[in-house]
Write a structure and sequence with these properties.
Shape: globular
Radius of gyration: 22 Å
Order of helices and strands: HHHEEHEHEHEEHEHEHEEEH
Largest sheet: 9 strands, mixed
Number of helices: 10
CATH architecture of the largest domain: 3-Layer(aba) Sandwich
Distance between the termini: 26 Å
Number of strands: 11
Strand content: 25-35%
């Protein structure tokens, strides 16, 4: 169903006047919007835009397509709406998730299974990079992951769901709500989140922004493991404030905001076109839960 997505992006360009403005409305980069529009031009075998520097103007052929494009997109969205309000959905899909999002995903899939008994769902646990590769290779149909810092391929769909700000986490034995974040990072042992991951890259970006080189003692690829170590007063860490985990209510921990405004990681759903009709039902369920 890539053509439907391309038409939805095309209508956003027509409505908001540029690739850049449309990108923010359809959760794509400006480059990805341009890539989709070039693919659409190839599919229709005609130019749809007149490009002059940064100015984009629709050709007469493009304007003639707008009414039909609106009807097609509206009809497709109506089909999805019908599917989500009681029509039988059957089939098998495999959906992956990072550890911190697995509980959120599984709870919603259990309720979907009750609504659609013929829907067979297999869950896979993994890290963002490997899950994204599996979706790209059609080894799994979708994944709940951290936003990856590169352009989404044309055969995939990325939908941002929620944000998690990065916070400094410390034991209440060494910190209070009024503690100085920079002092803690300079004086306490530091537990680093896996620097090869998108989240780890944001942690490194935060440290560079603060111009601090902490006393690093361990590098761990699990937020849950880091939290346990911080709880045991092994050290402090910078990790995302997990949206669907209640460890922040633990009286042995304290979460402190970072100076200069915290960086955030975006959690979203990456889907392969192969099973987009069914994974779209899962996506809509997740969005409804977050609303």
């Amino acid at each position: 169903m890539s053509t439907i997505r391309f038409l939805r992006t095309f209508l956003a360009v027509e409505k908001y006047g540029s690739f850049a403005a449309a990108a923010g409305r359809v959760a794509l980069t400006q480059a990805a919007v341009g890539q989709q529009m070039r693919a659409l031009e190839e599919e229709f075998r005609r130019p749809l835009f007149l490009r002059s520097g940064r100015v984009i103007t629709l050709t007469p052929a493009a304007r003639a397509l707008i009414p039909q494009a609106r009807k097609l997109v509206a009809a497709y969205e109506a089909m999805l709406a019908d599917a989500d309000t009681g029509h039988e959905i059957a089939g098998s899909i495999t959906v992956g998730a990072i550890v911190s999002a697995m509980g959120f995903l599984s709870e919603n899939l259990v309720s979907l299974k009750a609504q659609y008994p013929a829907l067979d769902v297999r869950l896979v646990l993994g890290h963002t990079g490997e899950l994204a590769e599996q979706v790209t290779a059609s080894q799994i149909d979708a994944a709940l992951i951290v936003q990856i810092p590169y352009e989404t391929p044309a055969n995939l769909q990325w939908t941002p769901l929620y944000e998690e700000p990065l916070m400094l986490i410390a034991s209440t034995r060494v910190a209070t709500a009024q503690a100085d974040v920079a002092s803690l990072l300079k004086t306490q042992p530091f537990l680093r989140f896996d620097r090869t991951s998108p989240t780890g890259a944001k942690v490194e970006q935060t440290l560079r922004r603060m111009r601090i080189k902490p006393k690093e003692i361990l590098e761990v690829n699990s937020v849950a493991a880091i939290i346990d170590l911080v709880r045991q007063n092994v050290g402090v860490s910078i990790v995302p404030l997990l949206k669907h985990v209640a460890w922040t209510r633990d009286h042995s921990l304290i979460a402190l905001q970072l100076p200069y405004g915290p960086l955030k990681r975006v959690i979203g759903m990456l889907e392969n076109d192969r099973q987009l009709e069914i994974t779209g039902i899962v996506r809509q369920k997740l969005l409804q839960t977050l609303a």
